[in-house]
Automatic annotation (TrEMBL):
This is PD-(D/E)XK endonuclease-like domain-containing protein. The lineage of its organism: Bacteria, Candidatus Buchananiibacteriota. Residues 95-239 form the PD-(D/E)XK endonuclease-like domain. InterPro entries: PDDEXK-like_dom_sf, PDDEXK_AddAB-type. It comes from the Bacteria. Gene3D superfamilies: 3.90.320.10. Pfam families: PDDEXK_1.
């Protein structure tokens, strides 16, 4: 299938209409300004990845499970096990906040960016503070953590959600949680089922960086020049290596 250049939701330096900027695209800017500019300004996106259907299934089932306890305004057993003094948050906007195309939104006036991001879950504690919760799934040997360098994006993801909720006037606890499920690999046989261990990992976020990064992303999009390639960007490194070989 031929690659198609994107022809919608491109940044227009002359437009006064708020520009929708997702949490994912902001993360792309952090990773590589060149790729971000090519995508949001010029309409040339990175090649799409394949869908992680098993991860999506886990995400869907976790939401259904926590929603059962949300309807009863009671703690989930996982919250009891880890002694988290909170219950799943009830709000009529939760379905919208979970939707990938709407999410939690905020119009950031200095940039005119309509920033949005889809949360997995929100809990609330007795102090009426919201707690951001993100679901993650993997299958590996050894303990589960969020200490790897590549997982910094997970932490920024949570911090953007915390920032968005605060901008909407909510009290938000600095500590969020990752519900991290790990597919067991030590079973004697598959037998048509995959079992998981469930871990609850706390993370104390700091969203103070979001404002500055939004301003930097605005400056990037306003520029008339394509930014330099990031030395750590796999996409840019591939393009540069391919171009070098083709010239030989």
């Amino acid at each position: 299938m031929a690659y198609k250049k994107r022809d919608r939701n491109l940044y227009d330096t002359k437009s006064k209409v708020p520009f929708k900027l997702s949490r994912t695209r902001l993360e792309n800017f952090i990773n590589c300004q060149r790729c971000f500019y090519l995508d949001r300004r010029l309409g040339v996106d990175q090649p799409p990845g394949f869908p992680f259907n098993l991860n999506s299934a886990v995400d869907h089932l976790l939401k259904k499970e926590f929603d059962l306890h949300r309807a009863k305004n009671e703690k989930h057993p996982l919250m009891k096990h880890y002694k988290v003094d909170a219950v799943p948050y009830q709000n009529s906007n939760l379905d919208q906040w979970r939707d990938n195309f709407t999410g939690v939104q905020f119009l950031h006036a200095p940039t005119n960016f309509l920033v949005f991001g889809a949360v997995d879950d929100i809990w609330i504690n007795p102090q009426d503070e919201l707690i951001v919760v993100d679901y993650k799934a993997t299958s590996k040997d050894g303990p589960i953590s969020i200490d790897a360098e590549w997982q910094n994006s997970y932490k920024r993801q949570m911090e953007v959600y915390q920032w968005l909720l605060r901008q909407n006037g909510f009290k938000v606890n600095n500590t969020g949680y990752f519900v991290y499920v790990n597919g067991k690999r030590d079973a004697k046989a598959f037998d048509g089922k995959l079992e998981f261990d469930i871990n609850l990992i706390p993370y104390t976020g700091d969203d103070s960086w979001v404002e500055d990064v939004l301003l930097e992303a605005k400056k990037c999009l306003e520029s008339k020049h394509i930014p330099k390639a990031s030395p750590d960007c796999d996409y840019c490194n591939y393009r540069l290596a391919a171009a070098k070989v083709e010239k030989q």
